[in-house]
Design goal:
Elements: E1 6-9, E2 15-19, E3 22-26, E4 47-49, H1 55-58, H2 61-67, E5 72-76, H3 77-87, E6 93-96, E7 102-104, E8 107-113, E9 124-130, E10 133-137, H4 147-154, E11 158-162, H5 171-181, E12 185-189, H6 201-211, E13 216-217, E14 225-227
Parallel strand pairs: 3-4, 4-5, 5-6, 10-11, 11-12, 12-13
Antiparallel strand pairs: 1-2, 1-14, 2-3, 7-8, 8-9, 9-10
Helix pairs in contact: 4-5, 5-6
Bound molecules: nickel (II) ion (NI) and manganese (II) ion.
The site of manganese (II) ion (MN) has 6 residues, from helix 1.
Length: 228
């Protein structure tokens, strides 16, 4: 039986994405108040993608890398170097940079720009492409016009967009981003983890479905999965 591509949200920006038989974690911060799991609960991890060097995105990457000996980190060069040195295992990281396709197994991974900050390297988003489907995780970012290129070039089936405001896009900006990207599905993230990023995902859903015909907003609870 063919597996459906699937993603699972662990709250904040942490997702597990299953594509082409590989298990990828993006921004694996699993020790926040809304997370339904702990790093020790993960069964299989092939790749960990880090969008930028802030604690709520680097999260538990070092612990997960120690537990899952075959897992590799994919990130911008400076973060990959840091993690390789911290683990003393530089060959378990794949450092790339913005805009350059990275080929691993049957996946094509492209780091995208993000308007944000980062302690090491530049902040990024990531597009994960495969024959089974394509996911765009925007990382932490404000809106930017070139999101339309991400839509045009990579045609994401699913876009994961921050809506919490303060540090990233809020609802107004994320609606415009959805219009620029035109994915099949949008899943809101980076909201309600703590008070300054409170946002109502149902308000986002209602407004997107009014203003951007053809796009469905899927609201997940931490721990829920979505097949696409
Ligand atoms: Ni950040
Ligand atoms: Mn963040």
């Amino acid at each position: 039986m063919k597996n459906m591509p699937r993603l699972t949200w662990f709250g904040h920006s942490a997702f597990m994405i299953e594509l082409m038989g590989k298990v990828m974690l993006v921004d694996p911060w699993l020790t926040h108040a809304l997370s339904p799991i702990r790093p020790s609960d993960l069964e299989k991890v092939d790749y960990i993608i880090i969008t930028h060097d802030h604690g709520d995105h680097m999260g538990d990457v070092l612990e997960i890398m120690k537990r899952h000996r075959k897992a590799k980190v994919i990130s911008i060069f400076e973060i990959a170097n840091y993690i390789g040195e911290a683990l003393r295992e530089p060959n378990r990281t794949i450092g790339g940079n913005i805009g350059g396709p990275i080929y691993v197994d049957d996946l094509e991974i492209v780091l995208t720009p993000a308007y944000h900050s980062s302690a090491r390297g530049s902040p990024t988003g990531v597009v994960i492409m495969s024959k089974e489907g394509t996911v765009y995780h925007a990382g932490d970012t404000g809106i930017f016009a070139e999101m339309s290129f991400i839509g045009e070039l990579y045609k994401p089936s699913v876009a994961l967009l921050p809506i919490g405001g303060h540090f990233t896009m809020g609802i107004r900006e994320a609606i415009k981003a959805t219009e620029l990207i035109k994915p099949q599905y949008v899943i809101p993230m980076h909201y309600n983890t703590f008070p300054v990023i409170r946002a109502d995902p149902y308000k986002f859903k209602k407004l997107v479905e009014e203003k951007v015909p053809g796009v469905k907003v899927v609201i997940l609870k931490p721990g829920e999965s979505f097949e696409f």
